[in-house]
Amino acid sequence: MTKRYDFLVVGSGIAGMSFALKTAAKGRVALVCKTTLDEANTALAQGGVASVTNLAVDDFDKHIHDTMVAGDWLSDPAAVEQVVKGAPEQIGRLVEWGVNFDRKDDGSYDLHREGGHSEFRILHHADNTGYEIQQSLIKAVRECANIDIYEHHFAIEIITQHHLGRIVTRRTPDIDCYGAYVLNTQTGEVDTFLAKSTVMATGGVGAVYTTTTNPLVATGDGIAMVYRAKGTVADMEFIQFHPTALFHPGDRPSFLITEAMRGYGAVLRNLKGEEFMHKYDPRLSLAPRDIVARAIDSEMKQNGDDHVYLDVTHKDPEETRHHFPNIYAKCLSLGIDITKDYIPVAPAAHYLCGGIKVDLNGRSSINHLYALGECSCTGLHGGNRLASNSLIEAVVYADAAARHAAEAIAHVDFRTDVPEWNDEGTRHPEEMVLITQSIREVNQIMSTYVGIVRSNLRLDRAWNRLDILYEETERLFKCSKASREICELRNIINVGYLIMRQAKERHESRGLHYSLDYPPAPRNID
What we know:
Elements: E1 2-10, H1 14-23, E2 29-32, H2 41-44, E3 49-50, H3 60-70, H4 77-96, E4 122-123, H5 129-142, E5 147-150, E6 153-159, E7 179-184, E8 190-200, H6 221-228, E9 233-234, E10 239-246, H7 260-264, E11 267-269, H8 289-303, E12 308-311, H9 317-323, H10 325-333, E13 343-352, E14 355-357, E15 369-371, E16 376-377, H11 390-408, H12 432-449, H13 456-479, H14 484-505
Parallel strand pairs: 1-2, 1-8, 2-5, 8-15, 14-16
Antiparallel strand pairs: 3-4, 6-7, 7-8, 9-14, 10-13, 11-12, 12-13
């Protein structure tokens, strides 16, 4: 079946839903998500949203400087300025959509401070800010008559000239996107969604790794689709490992212990109860995430431990329970009273700083195709994301892309010669164990060889092992009917390859990419 929309949005986090809401007045919108609207990285974000709001002590220049320092001076200054200066207005839009940020008794925002920030500028809703944002946007989207929601729909490929029988390579100029082939996972049918503007807002890649804070839907689908369509993908080597995921073997995804807890005063300790951050950075537990994650990794390896501790027992118990009710409840369910007990933590794959390369309007290298949120590479994060910059980046770029796309659709027509999805001669895989085992192998390869610390030898081993899995999976895909499982496997292999290849190409230790073969240069924190 062929469906036609002015705007096709693939992904239902803060980026996808805010774009849909901003364009709904300009045309018909299809919002596609592979499970339900609730399951997105946005909903798991605990810390908050960074924005300059307390002008008595904070200003744009400070936020810009903090972002550049955290990004190891690899961030694009234009992108940083756009997000930082556009943040206050978009905070206002979030409030209009029903987001309830915590306030003090005088009505001003109750601001947190997180690692790498020089001032208190994190707006939050207790310790489940992302969930508050997600639920508010879901309500707004469901109430918008011009948005059609397609839950349990999985985008398989974006449609380009390739599907019209033309040869498309990475050197082909003016590749056009006409929409996407989308699998209804409940019926097994593949529909053709034609669109004047298509948006990738598919989130991150955490499920490529064994241990991650991301929901397991974060398989890099949009990035893989755009890469296969010969679009530009950049900075994939910069994978942020959150330093403090709750250590509880068997949990996947791992429960996140927000950065705001260290901003609140929590202290990192090894299993002997000793503080250790003074050995790694003068900012101690409030150093940027890449430094803290490597410090924890180093302590674990030196002592042969599988986790460290986060200590908040010296803080007022009632205040701790008030600021972090969900963390308190989660830990208590495991027999850990965070007001009395140390919290066991370990690093986990958390955020991708690279992705589909876009300009200041969120446009990819493929015409009529935008990318927003974690799957995009705007240049804001550079070599390392500053805490709580991601949610505000998503809404600022969604606003820019919405304005650009709304103007552009007046000059775009639907293609009438796009063929339907052809799965003639394919069959359902006889043994799903082949797919699930391959996924485990990819997770193990990436976690072992392309993790927090890398080397040329480790990356070479990853290359060789992923190459075998790639060949096996492509053969299986070509003879199989489309399913979420085979498509996700294909995508995580593509994404794993991109992370590994771009890590091999960076002959330095910079930002989140740390190689034993390239000792890092001294870090400028001024």
